[in-house]
Write a structure and sequence with these properties.
alpha+beta; Creatine Kinase, Chain A, domain 2; seven-stranded antiparallel beta sheet; three-stranded antiparallel beta sheet; 14 strands; 47% helix; 11% strand; Gln_synth/guanido_kin_cat_dom; Glut_cys_ligase
Length: 522
């Protein structure tokens, strides 16, 4: 245990610090495809009863019209976050007719590419902008890749804790600059160690053959409808999933906030030949927002993002520059198909431990060699994480994944205990013990369990996933959501429709004029 880590733990173990630590914030964004009860992708519009996908704060769509996204408020306790996510699921399932929510991250059998519906957000200028952005994603990466679902886990440390640490370290930077620097340090450690999350929680070792659309691959045949890799943990996070050749040049190593924001600003304004060949418009039709490496900053496919709540019409990168980092968003979490919400409290407790560990542990700047090594470690684990004696690179030397994993989990014991003391529970330490069990026995990992269930039931990936989806729909319908909560979400839906109508009625310029102004601001 490093001296810095020990000193920070000791400082936060004091009663006044423990009282503040309970004010960490935890939020979840969970994506899920709507499917028919036979497992086919729903081609229906976003259900009106769920509200406006443009203006609803809790229920929206991500890429496809069928890809729902549930967004919780940030809560001081992960248990509250999961409770809200449960409410959203229960309300949704009673308002999507005969459809259900797809249980895993990877889609099942997909229709032809052209039939996959892109999200619609109404006729307002801001709604059309969201639609054009998704059209751009379609022409750049294809619609199929945009049907992948995941969980984004949002986490923040109370500002009072950052102030306490800043004062203890006699750091002369402003509070905002110190906080941003410490979040960037957290992200550096996340880059170093996030392979561990892929081993422990990766749940996409197989996929439906329709996902590849005839592309070349190195997967093995599980059955006539399913491809897989025997030791894979998360094909979603492999080069088959969220990858982009255009983005290969923007790999910020998070050594400071300015280098990160500069790299994104550059990518949003740098033309990319393949996208220039597609064109920005075809006649009067917008095909993509621009022909640059990124249309907007959020197109950058990173495993973690520094975040700041934006003001009206403010771009994410401008919010970071103006007011610093407010929280982080871990984006590499697979949906666990065995869990009705795709995640449970034990996993959330461990994620809290892992993220706080990343925040408190030493985080030296990433060297030129460490950046590619971190990327290679991550990709090795997503493709072959359960392979016996898998070797990773740590500080320029080879180490088995199991040895390194045990070392990290052992170091996290103190962080788990710290959180247990703050929340007067033992759940963080218990969650950590479950992960140690997985490190000792790969068969306990979700990725291994997915393949084991498919073999036991002699079913394809899509058949397994549909069975889980129907089972979760049944689980989440009993008991039904209580009347008061139903009324709450019905009111939110109605308010969101009114808000969208108001936006559409108050536009003062054409969409082309709106886009001219939007692009000039970029």
């Amino acid at each position: 245990m490093s001296d810095t880590y020990s000193r920070r733990l000791a400082l936060l173990s004091q009663p006044e610090a423990l009282a503040q630590l309970k004010h960490c914030l935890h939020g979840i964004e969970r994506e899920s495809l709507r499917v028919e009860r036979n497992g086919r992708l729903a081609l229906t519009p976003h259900p009106k009863a769920l509200g406006s996908a443009l203006t609803h704060s809790s229920i929206t769509t991500d890429y496809s019209e069928a890809l729902l996204e549930f967004i919780t408020e940030p809560h001081h306790d992960s248990a509250q976050t999961l409770a809200e996510l449960d409410d959203i699921h229960r309300f949704t399932l009673t308002h999507i007719d005969q459809e259900v929510l797809w249980s895993p991250s990877m889609p099942g059998h997909l229709p032809k590419e052209e039939l996959i519906p892109i999200g619609e957000y109404g006729t307002s200028n801001v709604g059309q902008l969201k639609h054009v952005y998704r059209k751009g994603l379609a022409v750049r990466y294809g619609k199929t890749m945009q049907c992948i679902a995941g969980i984004h886990y949002n986490f923040s440390v109370p500002e009072s804790i950052w102030t306490l640490l800043k004062n203890d370290e006699q750091d002369q930077r402003s509070t905002i600059d110190y906080q941003s620097a410490r979040y960037i340090a957290l992200i550096r450690n996340f880059r170093r160690y996030s392979w561990l999350l892929m081993y422990l929680f990766g749940a996409s070792p197989a996929l439906d053959i329709s996902f590849l659309r005839g592309r070349e691959h190195q997967l093995e045949v599980f059955d006539e409808d399913t491809l897989y890799l025997p030791y894979a943990t998360s094909l979603r996070m492999s080069d088959l999933g969220y990858q982009s050749n255009a983005q290969a040049g923007i790999t910020p190593c998070y050594n400071d906030l300015q280098s990160y924001t500069d790299s994104l600003r550059c990518a949003v304004s740098t033309p990319y030949p393949a996208y220039q060949a597609i064109g920005q418009k075809k006649g009067d039709e917008w095909l993509q927002i621009n022909t640059n490496i990124l249309q907007i900053e959020n197109e950058y496919y990173s495993t973690m993002r520094p975040k700041r709540v934006t003001l009206a019409d403010e771009r994410p990168v401008d919010a970071l520059i103006a007011r610093g980092i407010q929280y982080v968003e871990a984006r590499c979490i697979d949906i666990n198909p065995f869990l009705p919400l795709g995640i449970d409290l034990s996993q959330a407790r461990f994620l809290d431990t892992f993220l706080l560990y990343c925040a408190l542990q030493d985080s030296p700047l990433l060297s030129d060699s460490e950046c590619p090594a971190a990327t290679k470690n991550f990709l090795n684990v997503v493709k072959q994480g359960r392979k016996p004696k898998l070797q990773l690179e740590c500080n320029g030397k080879q180490i088995t994944m199991q040895d390194w994993g045990h070392e990290l989990l052992e170091q996290m014991r103190a962080t788990a205990l710290l959180l247990d003391q703050a929340y007067a529970t033992t759940e963080h330490s218990e969650a950590l013990r479950k992960q140690i069990d997985k490190m000792n026995n790969p068969d306990l990992t979700p990725s291994a369990q997915v393949l084991a269930h498919m073999r036991e039931q002699q079913c394809s990936f899509s058949q397994f996933s549909l069975k889980q989806s129907l089972q979760h729909a049944q689980t989440l319908s009993h008991p039904p959501l209580d009347a008061q909560k139903v009324a709450h979400y019905e009111a939110l839906a109605e308010q969101s429709h009114r808000a969208q109508t108001q936006l559409e009625q108050h536009d003062k310029c054409s969409f082309d004029e709106y886009m001219d102004h939007y692009l000039s601001q970029a």
